[in-house]
Batch of 3 targets.
Target 1
Amino acid sequence: MSAVAASEFRPHRVVVLALDGLLPFELGIPHRIFGRPKDAEGRLLYEVVTCSVRPPGPVRTDADFTIHVEHGPEVLATADTIVVPASYELGPLFDEGVLTEELAAALALVRPGTRLASICTGVYVLAAAGYLDGRPATTHWADAERFQRMFPRIKVDADVLFIDDGDVLTSAGVAAGIDLCLHMVRRDHGTAVANEVARRTVVPPHRDGGQAQYIHRPVPDPQLATTTAARAWALGRLHEPIQLRDLAEQEAMSVRTFTRRFREEAGVSPGQWLTQQRVERARHLLESTDLSVDQVARDAGFGTAQSMRQHLQQALGVTPTAYRRTFRSGSCRP
C-alpha cells in the first residue's frame, strides 16, 4: 500500500449514545460487533466511542453499577453512524414522546447524512426527534403497540428483527441488536467480514424470520433427542434434493415426530429452514464467487435460476443479479 493510500484511510466512526437507565448488554453490542472487523492490512474498519448527553462522567445503568463515559455530546458531530441502545429511564420521552432539553441539544449536533440506528426502546429517541416520520421502524414486540399509538406517523412492524431504511435502522429487543449491527457490517463490507465477526462472537451471522417466533414457544425438554444431527447433515448436502423423510431418518424419528420436534427447536418448519439455509448459501456464492446465476442456483440447491430468483426476491427483496451487483461494488463508505 502506498503512503498516500495509507494516509487517506480513516475508520468509520460509530458513536454509541449512553442514556441513564441503559442496559449494559445492549450498550456492549456495538462495541463487540463493530470493534472486530479489520481490513487486509489488519487495520480496524470501525472506531467505536461512547458518549453521554452530559459532559464526561457517570451514567446510570439498569444494573447495580454505573459506567464512566469519557465523551460528551460533542462527539455526535463526528459520527458516521450513531447507535442508540435501550434505556429504562427515558422519562418524558417514553411517557409523552418528547425529547428532554439536553437530549434535543445533543441531537442538534448530529450532521446531516449520519447513519442512525436504535436497539429496542432506543427507537423512542429517533422517533421523538422526527427521524422516523413516515418511515418503517420496529422495536421490541412487547412495546410495539404502545409505540405505534404514541407515534402514529411511523409504520411500525412488530414482527421483524430489524428494519433497514437506508440511513435510519431500527431493531427489536436485546439480541436483535446483534442482528442489526452484523447487518450493518455486512452492508458496509460484505458477507465474509460479517461472518468472521459472527464466528468470533459465537452467534449466527444471519437469523431469518421475525419476532413472532420468540413471543411464546415452549423450550424443548433437553432430555429428549434433538434435531441437531439432521440439520448438520442437511447443511453438508444443500445442493442435493432433501426430503422430509431423509431428515427424519437422521434422528431415527417418524416424520410426524421429527416435524413437531424441529419446529419446537428451530421455530420454523423443516422446509422453511432448508429454504433459509439455501438463501444464505446463495448469498455467499453471489458475493464471493464469479459463478453464473444458474450454477449458484444449482450449488445452493434451488435447481433453477428462476426458483432461486423467486426465493431471493421473497427473502431479500432483490434479484440475484441485483444482490451481486450491490455486494461486489463496495457501495458503502468505509
Note: DSSP finds 16 helices and ten strands in the chain.
Target 2
Amino acid sequence: MLTIGNIPLKNKVILAPMSGVSDLPFRRIALRYGVGLVVSEMVASEALCTGHPESLMRAEGEGIDPHIAQLAGKDPHWMGEGARMAEKAGADVIDINMGCPAKKVTSGYSGSALMKDLDHAMTLVEATLEAVSVPVTLKMRLGWDETSINAPELAKRAVDAGVQMITVHGRTRSQFYKGKADWRAIRQVRDVVPDVPLVANGDCCKFEDADEMLAQSGADLVMVGRGAYGRPWVPGRIAHYLETGERLADPHGEELAALVVEHYDAMLEQYGFEIGVRAFRKHMGWYLEAAGRLDDAPQGFMRGLMTSLDADLVRNTLYDWFVQVPMRSAA
C-alpha cells in the first residue's frame, strides 16, 4: 500500500490544488465522489502567518481527512512558520508549491520561479521539514523552460532531505498550460526517486489519460486539475476505473441537479451571500459546459442567476435546468 509517511493512500487519484477552484466546498464534493486525496488551494505562507482572512480560509480543512495544506513562499522563515501554523490548525500533510506558473506568483520569486535557483528552493524545503512533525510533500514543474529541465535534481535533493511525496506537472513554467503535458519526461524523476510516491500531473481528463500517464511516467498516482472543472466527480470516477476497469457515467438528472444546488448553497455558506454568488459564477459556467448546455442557456441566464438576491429562486432554477440533463459517459 502506498503511503505518505504513515498516511495510507486510498487510491491512485488526487485532486490538484487550484487557486479559486479547490476550496473547501469543492474538495468536499470531490471526496464524496471517491477521489483519494484533495489538496487545499495554494496558501501564501507569510499571509497565513500574519492572519490574512483569505489565506486563513484557504488553509481550512474541516471535514477533510487527511487534510493537505499547500504553502507557497520565498522566505525560509515564513515557510517554516506557515507550516507550523498549518500543522497546529490540523493539517496532516504540508505540500510545498514550486509549480505555480502565474506571473503574480513567480514575479515574487515563489511557485515555479524557485526552480531557477535550486539551492534557494532547498532552503524552503529544509525550513518546512524542520518546522513540522507531519509529512512534507513537494509539487513542481519539469523546470523553468526547455533549457533548464531540473525536476529530477530538485526531486532527488528534496527526497534526500526528507520529503515524502513528489508531484510533477509535465510542462515547464514557460509553457504555462499550452501544448500537451509531457508525461514521458516525468519518468526521469521516477528514475532518481524510486522509493517515494510519485504523482504525474497535467492533462488528465478522462479514463484513458490516466492509463497513459501512469504507463509513460512510471508514476504511482495521477493528479486531476482542470479536468475537474464543472465535473468534481471525475477524479473519483477515474480512481474507480483504475481499480476496477469500470467506467461509471456522469451524474445526471436529479443527482446532478441536487449536486449543483448543494454546491451553490455551500459557496454561500463558505463566503457569505455577496462573495459566494460571484465565486459560484465560474462553477456555474463549467457545470453548463460539462453538461453540454452552455449553448442552450438564454441570453442573460447566468447573469440573472448569479446576481439574484432570491436564493430560493436560484436554487429552484438551477434544479429545474440541470434535472433535464440525460445520462452520458463520464470521461
Note: The chain is about 45% helix and 10% strand.
Target 3
Amino acid sequence: MSTATTPAPTAVTAENGRRATSPLRWWPAAVLALLVVAPWSALPLPGLLDGPVGSPGSLQLMATCLLFGALATGYDLLLGRTGLLSFGHALYFAAGSYATNLFLLEAGLPFAVSALLGVCTGTLLALVLGSVSLRVTGIGFSMVTLAFAQAGSILVSRNPGGVTGGEEGRAAPADVLPSWLVGIDHTANLYWLALAYLVLTLAVVHRAVGSPTGRVWEGIKENERRVEVLGLKPYGFKLTAFVLAGALAALGGLVHLLLTGGSTPQTTTSDFTLSLLVMVVLGGSGTRWGPMVGGILYTWADHRLGDLAGSGAVADLPAVLRVPLSQPLFLLGVLFVAVVHLLPGGLARLPSRLRGTVKEKR
C-alpha cells in the first residue's frame, strides 16, 4: 500500500518545483524587454549614468557596453569554448570597420553593399590568417596571431595611400551613412542596433556551442589528442571556431563604425585584444552569460572611472588617495584582481557561490 502511494508526493513536489523555477527561466526575455524600452525611459540612475536612461549620452554609453559585451561573447568562442588563446582578435574587428569605411569613401558604394563587403572582408581575413595560425598550437599559435595583429596595426598607422588616416583614424562623413543612424536625434537607433548585435551574437554562440561541432570544441579544449584518437581532425573544427569568431568581430567593427562615426587605429592594437581577454576572464570564461557581463561591466567601468578620475572630488583628496584614484587603469586593475581572487571562474560563478553559502548556513 505504501509502495503504491509513495510516488505521489514526489510527483507533486517535482511539479511544484517546476512551477517555482519556471519563471526564472524567462529572466533573459524580461531583461531584453527592459533594454528594448530603455530609450523611452526618463528614469535617473545616479552613479551609474550621467543622466536619465533615455538621454543621448546614457544611450551612447549603454550602446557601447552592449557592443563590447557581444564582442567578448564572440571572443569566448576561441578562449572559453575551444581553448585557443588568440592575441589578434582585434584585427578582424578593425577589418570590419576599416573595410566598410573604405568601400564607402574610396569605392563610393552604397552603405548596405559596403557593410556587407566589410563584414565579408573581415571574415575572409579570419579564414586566411586562421588557416595559417592554426598550423601551430599552444603558445606558438598565440604568438602567430599576435604577429599578424601587430602587422595590421603597423599597416594602419603607416596610412598607405592615405586610406586609413594613420594615427588619427578615418571618419565616415554623415552624408555617406544612413540618415536614421546619424545625429544625436537618432542615438536610440544606434542603441537598438547595438542591442540587436548583442542578441544575434548570443544566439549564434549558443546555437554553435550546443551543436555537435560545439561538443567537439569542448573536447578539443579538454584534450585535443583524444579527439584525434576518436578519428576527428581538430584543425577543421578549430578553424570553424576561428572564422565564426572573426565574422562576429567584423560585424562588431561595423557597429562600432556607426557608433563612433569612423574607424580608429586603437581598435587594431594588441591592447584592444588584451582588453577582450580581461572582459572574458572577469565575467567567466566558457560560460553562457559571463563574457557578456564582463564586457558590459568592464566597458562601463572604463568610461565611468575615467570621469571619476578627472572629477573635482578626486582632485581635492590627499595625494595618497588622489594619485591612484586619478588613474582609471589602476582602478580597473584592482577590480580585476579582486574578482579573480575572490571569485575564481568570474562573475558568472557568483550566483552558485551565493546558493552554496545559503545552503551551508542552513
Note: Confidence is low (pLDDT under 50) at residues 1-21.
